[in-house]
Amino acid sequence: MSDTKTLVALLLGDVCGQPGSRALFLGLHSLVKEYRADVVVVNGENAANGFGLNASLMEQFFALGVSVITSGNHIWQQDDIRGLLDSEKRLLRPANYPPQAPGHGSVVVDVKNYKVGVLNLQGRQSMPSIDCPFRVGMEQVNRMRKQTNLILVDFHAENSEEKEALGLYLDGKVSAVVGTHTHVQTADEKLLPHKTAYITDLGLCGPSDSVIGSDPKISIAKQLTQMPLRSEISDTAPLLQGVCVTLDTSTGQALAIERISRLYQI
Fold this sequence. Notes:
- There is one protein chain.
- The protein has 266 residues and is of the alpha/beta class.
- The protein has a single domain (6-263), classed as 4-Layer Sandwich (Purple Acid Phosphatase, chain A, domain 2).
- The protein has helices at residues 17-35, 55-64, 82-87, 133-144, 160-169, 216-225, and strands spanning 6-12, 14-15, 39-43, 68-70, 106-111, 114-122, 151-156, 176-180, 190-191, 197-199, 204-207, 238-248, 254-263.
- Strand 9 (190-191) and strand 10 (197-199) form a beta hairpin.
- It is globular and about 55 Å long.
- The N and C termini lie far apart (43 Å).
- The model has no long low-confidence stretch (mean pLDDT 95).
């Protein structure tokens, strides 16, 4: 019998509006129990009606059992969260924003008898022009590896090529690289050659019948008219998507990755 000790990480896609919060409320506890998850990482940058995260939602997510909340380019859109970006260590903004921006891009949390690092990065293709996620990412990884070899990376990016390239760049140096931002779950979950778990996009925790979380009527009207119509979150059955990654605690390598997609009819 193998004496390999494992740790299980549940990584969930962008929480989008009230349906996304509802998906966590309805499904997170049972998912943690089903997969025997030890650590839960959720991207919360669209939780507050599609734009940003507020303090109340942050507290609700932690109360539900979320270990770390990652984010992306919309994290700045709710004023009451900005002070918490500095004070709440479990709330991350992408590490490659300028150092003058509030907040921090990585954290090491205690899980059972282990330390688990979580790193948040943001892409630059079709996104705001910020610092290089490859250079900053490697600097952060090298620093975190002094404390732990169990490192989970949320790469919040638009471009699949950029995501795949970062995955291979960090392969063998981190436990998992998972993409967020596009709200469309990809079917390319795999173990990279040096045993880093990878998926291009975790998908969406939010409304099932939607256009990346938004009301289809408005999204279609935007395409037909090319007018800058404000998106509204679709109010349909909540969907919860992400992956479960099993890690070898001695090496930090991923042993398995499983894609998850659950629909909750209420």
